[in-house]
Amino acid sequence: MRVVVTPEALPADWTTDKPITGAAIQVRRSFGAPSRFEIAKIAARYFPLAEGYVEEVIDEGIYPKEDFPSAPFPKDKTIRRSETVVEFITPPNVQGMGTTGASPLQMNADPIQGVAIILPDQDMDLLMVHMRLPAKLRDLAGAILAGVENNLAAGGVD
C-alpha cells in the first residue's frame, strides 16, 4: 500500500519507478512475505530485533549478503525512538534512506525526513514515511512524524 501526496498533480502514467523531484509525502506499508527483500535490507540497517528475519532472507540466496548492510547510511542523521521505530533525515544532495528504492524522492537541494517502523507482530511488515517539505513548511515534519508514531502506538496500522 502506498499513498503519495504532492502539491503538483502526478501524471496519469506515473509509476513508483519515476522519481519525484519536488515536495512530496509518501506513506508506504510493505507487507512481510511479498516485500521480504526490501524489508530485510532496511531491517538490517536499523532493527537488530529483526536479525533472524534478515538472516532467513539472506539464506534464500537470491541476493548476496553484501546487499544487506548492517549500518545506517553514513550521512543520514538517525534518531532511534524504540527498538521498532527509527526516524531519519537524509541531507540535501546525498544518497541515503530518503532516496533509496523504498522512496520515489530523488535527491536535490532539500533534505528528506522520515520514519521506518518495523512491525514484528505482523509478519515483519514495514511502515515508512518519506517527506520532502518546502522550507516554509519544514517545521511541520516533527508533528507529522509524531502523528504517525502516535497512531501506530494506538494500534492504527491497518
Per DSSP E runs of 2 or more residues, the count of β-strands stands at: 6
Shape: globular
What strand order characterises the main sheet?
Answer: 1-2-6-5-4-3
The helix content is 10-25%
On the 0-100 scale, what is the average pLDDT? 90
Derived from helix and strand composition plus strand pairing, the structural class reads alpha+beta
Q: Roughly what fraction of the amino acids lie in strands?
A: 15-25%
Order of helices and strands: EEHHEEEEH
**C-alpha end-to-end distance:** 10 Å
Number of separate helices: 3
Instruction: Count structural domains.
Output: 1
Q: Biggest sheet, in brief?
A: 6 strands, antiparallel
Gyration radius (Cα, Å) is 15 Å
> Which runs of at least 5 residues are low in confidence (pLDDT < 50)?
none
Please give a quick description of this structure.
Helices cover 21% and strands 25% of the residues. The chain has helices at residues 36-46, 51-59, 141-153; strands spanning 2-5, 24-30, 77-82, 85-90, 112-119, 125-132.
